From TrEMBL:
InterPro entries assigned to the protein according to its UniProt record, in alphabetical order: 2-OHcarboxylate_transport
MF (Gene Ontology): organic anion transmembrane transporter activity
Record-level GO cellular component terms: membrane
Location of the region described as Disordered in the Swiss-Prot/TrEMBL record: 1-33
Key words, A-Z: Membrane, Transmembrane, Transmembrane helix
Protein name: Malate permease
Amino acid sequence: MESQSAQASGSPLAGTSPTHAEASNAPGAANPSGPSRWTALTIGGAPLPMFVAIAAITGLAALTGRLPADMIGGFAVLMIAGMLLGEIGGVIPGFRHIGGPAILCLFVPAALLGNGLMDDAMLKAITVTMKTANLQYLYIACLVAGSMLGMNRKILIQGFLKMFVPLLIGTLAAIAAGCLAGLLFGFSPRHTFFFIVMPILGGGIGEGILPLSIGYSEITGEAQGHLIATMVPAALIGNVVAILSAGLLKRFGEKHAHYNGNGMLVRSGEDRALLEGQSEAQALDLRLMGHGLLLACTLFILGALLAPLTGIPGPVLMIVAAAVMKVARVIPASMETGAYQMYKFMSTNLTFAILVGLGTLFVSWDKLVGAFSTAYFVICAATVIAMVVSGFFVGMWLKMFPVESAIVTACHSGLGGTGDVAILSSSNRMGLMPFAQISTRIGGAGMVVIATVLMKFWH
């Protein structure tokens, strides 16, 4: 049996609980008033009174010097901050559709630390959890293993074959346009390629920028925090441009029916038959989740073993190993399911917490603010627009529906699974999610590997 379908929108930023605003707008939702109205509110899925109590206890412990300076204290601080900032970013109209939760989780802690407003006890607990215990590495391992092994193998192979040419040409067009725009604004091709274009095409923060930053850091010796602060703005801006492009493509398709597949990618309808072969979601199995955790750790260790032999950083080799094992059917389907379920657990519960930790310790507030400029916006926009336009015309050439081909290609610049959801929602094409996941996951993983290898020789 194949493991989980690519239909699920998993990613470094997917799997979050619905906001209270979304829940209250559901059909049949009650409209409580008075005290019951407050008890019905949730923060990150937790009832508001309970969340306040948990936050108060943690805050009191920090103020009195009793907050454990280990993973217990670190998890509490990171999860509380992540749930709160993620909830706020997820309810702001418009902002939530362009990666609002991720932006707040990264920017707010960086701003607090940069302005000397971070509590020392909380900072120490976060430091131990993120740096000493290397929580980010465990998170990356679970995300890479689960996202690769959790894809339906049939869709992975056949979908990739269908999208290979549009993705390849779109990627080359994006690189060329981005580097050319960079030259016009005085950026070197090397800087534009590695620190602006690659973060946009890397597949998000958890599966793209984090492995890239680790790889770049090991090769160049630069601080990982500086690298993250340099690359994050590009991924965020690229995601916004892709969302806007998808909305414009939807309008274009409505006015020009010949180019519009109304959610179908291939004119022959082959993709409908392909998607009908998806496997159903497996029931949650706690033992399999344990197997998935062990598998993720083992793949990370395998990457570390191969790194000295190849000169390529371990986290990047882990991506290659997971993809090869998936295609070769080396791993039992049950363990693939466990890896996928562990991935969903980590992405649902720890994504915003990890982003808070990254924003606190690895993102320089000054460098983050300094990265935003008119030139930077133009370079990012040129990169994404070139990819979308090429996807449109290559799709036409390959007898695909150009609107759908361009939208799926645009997902190559999405901010992980959440970016895919936002892009497809903007274009009302959620049925393209499996192809979007291939564009984001496989395309992104390929970019991480290629960029790291090139950095080694271009350093």
